């Protein structure tokens, strides 16, 4: 009878002891055959429940605790194996959640695991059951115990999908939980896609709920959202962290719906949902909300406005007073977002109201000293956004008000701190995006704005407030976006060019954006900057994310057709001359870095402009030149620039670029243009080649010349420059690798002809001592090679040839890299792959082991260990075919005997003896053709490698009272304990008649002419005696005896 049927006889209603072990066996039975378990499952579950009912929550003795623990484990196991037992009712879920709240803390972990397992049982349950579960989870999330809340969120995320509104609301609640693990799990339930840069629609598996459905559920849980109009004074209806998660999730829902159906903008139902969302966002701006919440809510409003500008403008044109109050918010980002929103709202105001709003904002600047900084900043931001938007509409604001607005901003720039000056400049920049800035009228005279501001801006740009400088320089570019005055344009250019020696990356990139606005045709419009969460060209342009075409498709015609094109042509010519004649080939590294940043900016943001297209060959040459820079930023920008040029170029340009990168990587390219050196030109990075004779630094051209003269060797400067050129070559390879990796996947067939040249170099450079070079080459290797093992196998001979040649290079880094690469590549190879290279590999290993540089010697030792392992395997007849083993032995053994064991380098000699001994152990009969040479070498080595101290003792033995006989016995004993003697002993076992014909003459010669006691007498004679004893009965020894005896008699 089945064990399960015997279970009916289990005495469940018995004492504590029996209960404990009954449940133990039940847990064991649950894991048995599933068919039997299906029959007995209900009986087992009923028994477990009765067992649990036999205890109260207060029972905490060890037997009760253990019994309960096993019972909850059993429920969890049953839920996994028989989910149908639980799926139709929620009683078990209720029971486990209650147990989490009421049972002792020592059982919480077990109950929590059982509860988690139970969740899987309800997948696919009836809708009515799922609705009950929703209520249960929402109720239990309010529990005091963190374990209960954890299980509630776990059930919500695992049982329901992303478009299920009630479960997502529970996740929103969980996002504000005090426990980190609950918060993280809740946020993962809301935002399963971590790559925020991708469009949601690009991932078909991610389906968010409809915006209206999610808002409807939220309003059902908190109806007060629509109760009052005095939202700013209300308390938050949810915790700040929950609000933040809720807003971000609702924004995802909003964006996904619009991505899927652009016509929704006209849908009354959708617009109604958006209005409800705006109401929720306004609630989130309540005073007690966190800074993060306010910033998130205000930016979300701008995000919505970027999709539905008219609807948002109309809605918030009724909320201008509320928006003006928020201009003095304590958070910078919130103030900027509110100012933007006020600008958007102003477009829906009547002209008179809009004019009055600007007048009110301008009037506040006359009392700047009385306002808090936050209020000052908010007002200036609002002036910029509102005035810019008003100038874009028809009719524009009155000329007198426009003049007063500009004068107010100019006064702030001239009189205030760097921070407020930069904000006022930013406001001028926003206005300049829409209209050219007119001269300011003073009495009967008129003066250009930049002429008035030039002195103050020059001072500000030479200051140390990085953020202020960034705002000012970008504003200079934006001011000139619609400018037609050559005076204005040249003034802006001169101010921007004054930053060419800045060492602050952010400032250089800001200047690059400014130059792009001056050049024209940037991939953003005035509306994008004024009515979206625009931060910079690099963040707004999709070029950097590989979607260049779509970023250019957003350009509107008014940005493509520049006013006063002749003036623009002059500006472009000025920028080009500055870059190519002054900066990119400058003797100062900081100017070359600035040139690289600015050229890359122009190429990225204005790359489709006809002038840039015509300049692509020059741009490619400049970036190729900059690949050899010591400055890592310059080098990486150059490599990125090569990738951008590849994207922009036609087929011919792409092929030329691939060829240029290949020649740089393989070392066959030459620079077309050189950098002229000045006295202060930095040739080496400080500390790269040590210090001068007096302890001073050695980096500039002048310092190197002085050192050469001090040493009385003026020609030494040429060696310094040769070393510098080599460093540039190495840097170029690294930079080219980064550039190459970005175009490798796109280049496709264009790279195939170059693989024979590239692969060996890439393999070697991945072992370069410079970690930066390693990383760069590994990067391109991953991009270029889909199947590394197959690629190496296909190009193995070419790789071996390159590595073996470079292992003898005059450059230590090439020798080191080659040895390390060889050590890795030869592992696991077969004879037909390495046979033709085996001797050269051994030669390379021995040469490296005797290198002058320690790191090369270490690499040589590693190669020696690797090739030793390979050789032993190839010569072992149990692991390799006999024919291959013989060929391997024919290559390696003569080499080791002639050049290894007899080497004057101790490490090489010892390594060779160890290899030979291991070869003899595994080679078996494959060693026979080499026995004569092997035995002779071992016997001679017993003397030549003997400790020289023994000879010294022998000379002074009489004086020291040491008996000669004892000394000789000691020497013989040492010899017999050496690896050479062990090898000789192994050789005796494989001697045959044919090998004896060659061996006996060598032994006779050694007996007659051997040098050293061990070789001439004892060792050779002992070998002969042992061999004769072992060979008796195996060979006819008479034919060999005469020559042996003749040698011994002498």
Automatic annotation (TrEMBL):
GO molecular function term, any single one: molecular adaptor activity
GO terms, biological process: ERAD pathway; proteasome assembly
Domain ECM29 ARM-like repeats: 274-394
Domain spans labelled Proteasome adapter and scaffold protein ECM29 HEAT-repeat: 927-1017
Keyword line: Cytoplasm, Proteasome, Repeat
Domain (Proteasome component Ecm29 N-terminal) ranges: 22-174
Matching SUPFAM superfamilies: ARM repeat
Main location: cytoplasm
Localization annotation: Cytoplasm
Transmembrane segments: none
GO CC, alphabetical: cytoplasm; nucleus; proteasome complex
Pfam family name, one: ECM29_N
Protein name: Uncharacterized protein
């Amino acid at each position: 009878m089945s064990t399960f049927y015997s279970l009916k006889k289990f005495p469940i209603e018995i004492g504590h002891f029996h209960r404990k072990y009954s449940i133990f066996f039940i847990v064991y039975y649950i894991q048995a055959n599933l068919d039997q378990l299906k029959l007995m499952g209900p009986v087992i579950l009923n028994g477990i429940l009765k067992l649990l009912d036999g205890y109260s929550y207060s029972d905490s003795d060890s037997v009760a605790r253990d019994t309960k623990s096993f019972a909850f484990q059993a429920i969890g196991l049953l839920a996994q194996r028989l989910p149908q037992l639980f799926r139709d009712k929620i009683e078990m879920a209720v029971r486990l959640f209650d147990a989490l709240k009421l049972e002792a803390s020592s059982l919480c972990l077990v109950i929590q695991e059982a509860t988690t397992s139970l969740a899987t049982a309800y997948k696919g349950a009836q809708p009515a059951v799922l609705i009950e579960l929703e209520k249960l989870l929402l109720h239990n999330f309010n529990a005091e115990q963190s374990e209960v809340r954890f299980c509630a969120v776990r059930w919500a995320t695992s049982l329901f999908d992303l478009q299920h509104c009630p479960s997502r609301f529970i996740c929103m609640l969980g996002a504000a939980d005090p426990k980190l693990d609950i918060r993280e799990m809740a946020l993962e339930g809301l935002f399963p896609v971590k790559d925020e840069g991708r469009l949601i629609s690009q991932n078909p598996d991610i389906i968010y709920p409809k915006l209206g459905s999610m808002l409807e559920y939220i309003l059902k849980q908190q109806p007060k959202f629509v109760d009052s109009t005095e939202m700013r004074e209300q308390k938050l209806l949810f915790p700040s962290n929950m609000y933040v998660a809720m807003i971000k999730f609702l924004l995802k829902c909003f964006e996904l719906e619009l991505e899927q159906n652009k016509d929704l903008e006209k849908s009354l139902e959708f617009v109604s949902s958006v209005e409800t969302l705006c109401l929720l966002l306004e609630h989130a701006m309540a005073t007690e909300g966190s800074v993060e919440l306010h910033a998130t809510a205000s930016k979300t409003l701008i995000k919505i406005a970027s999709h539905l500008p008219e609807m948002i403008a109309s809605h918030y044109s009724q909320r201008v007073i509320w928006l003006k109050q928020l201009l003095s918010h304590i958070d910078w980002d919130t103030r900027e977002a509110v100012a933007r929103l006020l600008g958007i709202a102003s477009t829906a105001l009547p002209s008179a109201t809009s004019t009055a709003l600007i007048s009110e904002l301008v009037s506040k600047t006359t009392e700047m000293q009385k306002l808090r900084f936050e209020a000052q900043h908010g007002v200036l931001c609002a002036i910029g956004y509102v005035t810019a938007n008003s100038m874009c509409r028809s009719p524009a604001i009155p000329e007198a008000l426009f003049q007063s607005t500009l004068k107010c901003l100019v006064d702030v720039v001239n009189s205030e701190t760097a921070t407020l000056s930069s904000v006022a400049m930013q406001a001028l920049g926003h206005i300049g995006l829409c209209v050219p800035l007119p001269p300011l009228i003073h009495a009967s005279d008129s003066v250009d704005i930049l002429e008035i501001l030039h002195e103050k801006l020059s001072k500000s740009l030479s200051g140390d407030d990085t953020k202020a400088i960034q705002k000012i320089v970008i504003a200079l570019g934006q001011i000139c976006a619609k400018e037609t005055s050559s005076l204005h344009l040249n003034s802006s250019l001169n101010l921007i060019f004054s930053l060419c020696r800045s060492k602050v990356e952010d400032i250089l990139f800001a200047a690059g954006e400014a130059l792009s606005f001056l050049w024209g045709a940037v991939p953003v419009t005035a509306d994008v900057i004024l009515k979206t969460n625009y931060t910079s060209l690099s963040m707004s342009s999709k070029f950097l994310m590989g979607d260049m075409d779509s970023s250019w498709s957003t350009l509107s015609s008014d940005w493509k057709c520049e006013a006063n094109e002749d003036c623009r042509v002059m500006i472009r010519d000025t920028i080009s001359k500055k870059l190519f004649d002054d900066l990119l080939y400058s003797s100062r590294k900081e100017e070359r870095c600035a040139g690289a940043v600015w050229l890359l900016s122009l190429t990225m943001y204005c790359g489709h402009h006809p002038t840039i297209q015509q300049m692509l060959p020059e741009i490619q040459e400049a970036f190729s030149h900059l690949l050899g820079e010591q400055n890592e930023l310059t080098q990486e920008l150059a490599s990125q620039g090569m990738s951008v040029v590849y994207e922009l170029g036609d087929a011919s340009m792409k092929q030329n670029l691939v060829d240029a990168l290949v020649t740089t990587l393989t070392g066959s390219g030459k620079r077309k243009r050189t950098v002229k050196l000045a006295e202060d030109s930095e040739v080496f990075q400080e500390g790269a080649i040590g210090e001068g004779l007096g302890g001073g630094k050695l980096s500039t051209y002048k310092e190197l010349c002085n050192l050469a003269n001090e040493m009385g060797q003026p020609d030494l400067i040429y060696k310094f420059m040769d070393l510098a050129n080599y460093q540039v070559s190495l840097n170029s390879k690294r930079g080219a690798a980064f550039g190459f990796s970005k175009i490798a996947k796109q280049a496709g067939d264009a790279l195939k002809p170059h693989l024979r040249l590239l692969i060996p170099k890439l393999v070697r450079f991945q072992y370069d001592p410079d970690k930066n070079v390693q990383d760069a080459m590994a990067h391109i290797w991953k991009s270029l090679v889909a199947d590394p093992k197959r690629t190496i196998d296909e190009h193995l001979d070419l790789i071996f040839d390159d590595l073996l040649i470079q292992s003898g290079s005059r450059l230590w880094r090439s020798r080191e890299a080659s040895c390390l690469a060889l050590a890795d590549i030869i592992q696991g190879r077969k004879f037909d792959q390495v046979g033709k290279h085996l001797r050269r590999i051994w030669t390379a290993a021995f040469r490296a082991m005797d290198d002058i540089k320690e790191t090369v010697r270490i690499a040589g030792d590693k190669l020696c260990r690797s090739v030793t392992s390979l050789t032993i395997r190839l010569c072992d007849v149990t692991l390799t075919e006999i024919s291959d083993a013989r060929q391997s032995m024919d290559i390696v053994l003569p080499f080791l005997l002639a050049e290894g064991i007899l080497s004057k380098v101790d490490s090489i000699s010892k390594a060779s003896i160890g290899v030979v001994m291991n070869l003899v152990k595994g080679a078996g009969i494959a060693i026979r053709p080499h026995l004569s040479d092997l035995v002779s070498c071992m016997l001679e080595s017993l003397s030549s490698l003997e400790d020289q101290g023994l000879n010294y003792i022998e000379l002074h033995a009489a004086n020291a009272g040491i008996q000669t006989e004892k000394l000789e016995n000691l020497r013989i004993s040492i010899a017999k304990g050496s690896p050479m003697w062990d090898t000789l002993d192994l050789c005796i076992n494989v001697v045959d008649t044919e090998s004896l014909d060659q061996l006996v003459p060598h032994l006779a010669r050694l007996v007659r002419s051997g040098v050293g006691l061990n070789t001439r007498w004892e060792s050779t004679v002992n070998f002969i005696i042992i061999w004769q004893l072992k060979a008796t009965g195996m060979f006819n020894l008479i034919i060999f005896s005469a020559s042996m005896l003749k040698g011994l008699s002498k």
